[in-house]
Amino acid sequence: MFSLNGKNVLVTGGTGSFGKKFVKKVLEYNVKKVIVFSRDELKQFEMSQEYKDPRIRFFIGDVRDKDRLYRAFDGVDVVVHAAAMKQVPACEYNPFEAVKTNIYGAENIIEAAIDRGVKRVIALSTDKAAAPINLYGATKLASDKLFVAANSYVGDKDTRFAVVRYGNVVGSRGSVIPFFKKMAKTGKLPVTDERMTRFWISLDQGVQFVIDSLARMKGGEIFVPKIPSMKIVDLAKAIAPDAEIEIVGIRPGEKLHETMITEDDSRHTVEFDRYYVIVPEFSWCPQEYVKQGKNLPEGFKYTSDTNTEWLTVEELRTLVEEF
Fold first, then answer.
1. Nearest to 304 by CA among 202, 197, 175
2. In this structure, are residues 198 and 139 in contact, taking their beta carbons and an 8 Å threshold?
3. pTM of the predicted protein model
4. Pairing verdict, β 120-124 and 78-81
5. Which of 88, 96, 140, 254 could form a disulfide with 129 if both were Cys (CB 3.0 to 4.6 A apart)?
6. Which residues are part of the catalytic machinery?
7. What domains sit in the chain, N to C, each tagged with a CATH number?
8. b/e for 116-140, b at 16 or more Cβ within 10 A?
């Protein structure tokens, strides 16, 4: 049974919202070392003032720099790849930069992990990678494909790759919550479309799902948690019930509803109690999932508007208060 105890763990994008929460959680285990890999020296300094554990190491570097990754991965057992360009408008207006970080960066992670003998690698994905309509989603879909296929050419090495895909994260940097709270002071909240829905997961839940997936992965899977949906207008009501809602229209590259499993992917997806596994379509596919999981019905798709689990205004208000 896999355990983080005694392992050297590295997280790329380690000073981001996920990275900080992941590091805090991993330090609860008896790990040897946790390496925070990121390119922002100020954020690393600030994080070093907050996290005083002697097991933490800070490593300045960029996933675009393969040589730096080779140095950082020396002696590392587990890599969680959270670094990405993820702001939709920024990716639309800086497409080559998004490709360099999200696609070429993924390739660099894969090659460095194999050559340095890293045992397990999990890459964070997004619901925007399923049936993408913007560049961010397209680059993350390409990244997902790279990490799944990487298991095909590890040769006799023990390195295994998997992907975790989930939706919007409560409390993450760039979340709509602080924006809505700020705008609530004006008495008016801008909502793109009153029909809009999104998947919703807390930062703690996202981190725990990654750790659980590290333990259960065989290689090549895309793990998708079962999480609730919410309506954007309900979130607005939860934050500022007396504010006027102004419909401003969908922005470029934005979906009305999000998808985490497409109808085509569902044909090789199996269901478990609290998560789905999109099984790779390769001959080396781990058959345990096919045998243990439940096949999905023909035509199934996992989308935020057809979800069976929904957050009410009251539940959203509780989440917002916690945030």
1. 197
2. no
3. 0.94
4. parallel
5. 140
6. 128
7. 8-167+200-226+259-302 (3.40.50.720)
8. bebbbbbbbbbbbbbbbebbbbbbb
